[in-house]
């Protein structure tokens, strides 16, 4: 154990915290010493590592949210400033570029707020999806539109291979495209420029499996099980790109609510593949005849 470093005294109690090595971080023991009528002391020792870790995650999260809000808000206010001064004299092309930046910044803010609201309803147990027979290609098209700018900015290619018999799914179309957009965004954010991101589909029993693969650095094994926890971000990701660590938590909630499963395959230097399943819808002919 490394020594006790803080001591707080409240009437009759002394609270000390001691740190000890625990996995890759330090664990925390809380030792409460209570004096009983000058006859001696009772010492209670509690392992408060989990609470300390939660507190640290929350602090990290608040900092990260503030950080994530800063750049779109700064972009919004800079563009609005310019528009306010020069909108009437500005060439049409510049005006259009500026409006596109404004729209992107507003979307980033919307996206962040939606993610936080989704995470709140997952936590509260009220998260719901509405599954209907729908098209996987349609959901993928919508997701591709959302991520196009991010891909262009890093000169990355999106390769889609929707194999035959895998288009009709029983899923919430908007939520499915949200899962795809989240996974493709991760693939883009954490991979180098000019790489390819591939979305493939396959039939597996009564389900459709979708795999989103990238050519990025991969994720070390010890971090993989934690990635679906809210607010968790891998060590390397924190410097590589922005984010608050909610995307995968939300993807898993959506996939599971639709009756599917999600898992990550990855290894340092091998890229990352996220696999998830969606129940297959009955064929259109069956639907029409009500079979
Ligand atoms: N394709 C990937 N390659 C490497 N690391 C990844 C990949 N996808 C996810 N990760 C790791 O998993 C962590 C959690 O991902 P998640 O999408 O939940 O959060 P985020 O991308 O950090 O933030 P956001 O809430 O904006 O999505 C990331 O911070 C990153 O460390
Ligand atoms: Mg993400």
Which fold name is given in CATH as the topology of the largest domain? Heat Shock Protein 90
State which percent range the strand residues make up. 25-35%
Biggest sheet architecture: 5 strands, mixed
The CATH superfamily title of the largest domain: Histidine kinase-like ATPase, C-terminal domain
Number of strands: 11
Q: So what's the overall shape? A: globular
Give the mean pLDDT: 89
Query: What is the H-and-E element order?
Result: EEEEHHEHEEHEEHHEEH
Q: What fraction, in percent, of the residue positions are helical?
A: 40-55%
Q: What ions, cofactors and ligands are bound?
A: adenosine-5'-triphosphate, magnesium ion
Radius of gyration from the CA trace? 25 Å
List low-confidence stretches. Answer: none
CATH architecture call of the largest domain? 2-Layer Sandwich
**Spatial arrangement of strands, main beta sheet:** 6-8-9-11-10
Distance between the termini: 67 Å
Structural class: alpha+beta
Count of domain modules:
3
CATH class of the largest domain: Alpha Beta
Give the helix tally: 7
